[in-house]
Amino acid sequence: MTISIRSVEKTFGRFPALNGVSLEIADGELLALLGPSGSGKTTLLRVIAGLEFPEKGQILYGDQDMTFTSAAARRVGFVFQQYALFRHMTVAKNVAFGLDVRKGQAKPSKSEITARVDELLKLVELGELGKRYPAQLSGGQRQRVALARALAVNPSVLLLDEPFGALDATVRKSLRKELRRIHDATGVTTIFVTHDQEEALELADRVAILNKGAIEQVGAPHEVHDNPAGAFVCGFVGEANRFEGAVKGGRFQSADIALPAPGVADGAAVAFVRPHELVLAPADQANLSIVTERIAPQGAVVRVDGATASGQRIEAAFARQNAGDLQPGAKLSLAADRSYVFSA
Question: From CA 22, how far away is CA 54, in angstroms rounded?
Answer without folding.
Answer: 13
